Amino acid sequence: MSGRQLNRVAVLSLHTSPLAQPGMGDAGGMNVYVLQSAIELAKRGVEVEIFTRATSSSDEPLSEAAPGVVVRNIVAGPFEGLDKQDLPTQLCAFAAGVLREEARHEAGYYDLVHSHYWLSGQVGWLARDRWGVPLVHTAHTLAAVKNASLAAGDSPEPAARQIGEQQVVAEADRLIANTSEEAKQLIENYGATPDSIDVVAPGADLSRYRPGDKAAARAEFGIDPRETVVAFVGRIQPLKAPDVLLRAAAELVSRQPSVPLRVLVVGGPSGSGLDRPDSLIDLAAELGISARVTFLPPQPSDKLVQIYRAADVVAVPSYNESFGLVAIEAQASGTPVIAADVGGLGVAVRSGETGVLVHGHRTDDWATALGKLLKDREALARMASAAPVHAADFSWEHTAEGLLSSYRAAQFHFDRGVAPSEFSPRRTRGLSKLRRAEVTA
Prior knowledge:
Blueprint: E1 8-12, H1 29-43, E2 47-53, E3 62-66, E4 69-74, H2 91-103, E5 112-116, H3 117-131, E6 135-138, H4 143-147, H5 159-171, E7 174-177, H6 180-190, E8 197-199, H7 214-220, E9 228-233, H8 242-255, E10 261-266, H9 279-287, E11 293-296, H10 301-310, E12 313-316, H11 325-332, E13 337-340, H12 345-348, E14 355-358, H13 363-375, H14 377-391, H15 396-415, H16 425-428, H17 432-440
Parallel strand pairs: 1-2, 1-5, 2-4, 5-6, 6-7, 7-8, 9-10, 9-12, 10-11, 12-13, 13-14
Antiparallel strand pairs: 3-4
Helix pairs in contact: 1-15, 2-3, 2-17, 3-5, 7-10, 8-9, 8-13, 11-14
C-alpha cells in the first residue's frame, strides 16, 4: 500500500520483558507473542528493537535476542519490588529512555511503533507524535472485559487503566485484535473504529511444539505411566482459575475413587495470586487431593513441550483469555484441551474435535465434562490426532504476515494524513527535527 520502506520497527513492551520466563511474575503469553513475532518479522527483513523496563541491575542496556532482534532495557524506577499497578508512575521515565534512544539517530530511524498492552500504548502515542510515524497497538487484555468476568476474590482493574486504554484506542493508527470477538469488544467497550482494526491470531512455535513420545515425557518428570494426567500451565492467579481445575478434580475423584488421576500444575504466583503464593497447595490439602497433585515451577519451552506430551488433557479454565497460547501449544503437541468458553478460547479450541469448551466455572460442570472426556478413550485419541492439524493454522509465520499487512495499512493511511486525533501526525512530521533538538538538549 505505502511507498515507504518498512526497515525498522520500535516495539514497546514496558511492563514485562520478552526475555522473561513465561509463568513467572507478570510474564506470560504476551512475552512469547512479542519475541516470536519479532523473530519472524526479522526473518522477513524488518529489524525489530524491543523496548522494555529493566528489572535487574544486571540487565545489559542492549541484548541481541535473535538475528535482527534486539532488546533495549530502559531504566525506569527501582529494579525490584515495583508492582504492575505502580508502573504508571514510571511512564515518564520509560518514555524519556525511548525518546533519547531514537534521538541518537538521524530522523526517520524507526518506521513504525508497535505497542503491547495499554502502558506501552501511552508511550507509543507520544513516540508516534514525536517521530512522525504510525502507531500500531495490541491490547492483549482489556480492563472492561476483565472486570466483567472477575474471579471470586479477585481485584478489579482500576478506572485509570480503562481511561488509559480508551486514550490509546483513540490515538492508535491501527489496532491489532487476536480474534473477531476481541475486535467486537474494542468497538463496543472503547468506541474503536471498525475499519481501523486488523484481526491477527497469535501462534505457536510449531517446530518445537509437536507430538512426541508420551512415555518418555512422563519418565522425564517421574509420572507413573498408568496415571491419567490433566495439566494446568500458567500463572497462579485467580484470573487463570487453577482452583477450578483442582475443585473439579476433587469432585471427579469423589465420584470415581478408582480413577488414577494426576493433576500437574505448572507455573508461579502472579498478580493478586502473590498475596497467597501457597493458596493452591493449601486448597489441594483442603480438598484431600494433595497426593494426586504435583506442583512444578515454570518450565522453559524445551521442557514445557514435554509437559504437554505427558498429559492426557491440558486444562485452561481462565475467566478471561484474549486468545490462549497454552491451548494452541498443547494441541500442537498432540494433546486435547478442556477450556472455559471465554474470549479467544472459542477460536483456539475446536470443541468436540480437538477438545471441549465448558460454559461457566461451576465445579459440577467441570467435573462432569472432565470425567466424560477422560472416560471416552477413543474420542480422546481422535482429538489427540486432530489437535495438531488444527494448531497448524496458528503459526508465528502467519502472525508475522498479518502484522506486516497491518503495518502497511498503517503506513498507507498515515502517509495520507488520516490520523485518529486532532494532533495529527501529518502536523508533527515537520516538527520532528525541532523536537529531536529538545530531547538531546
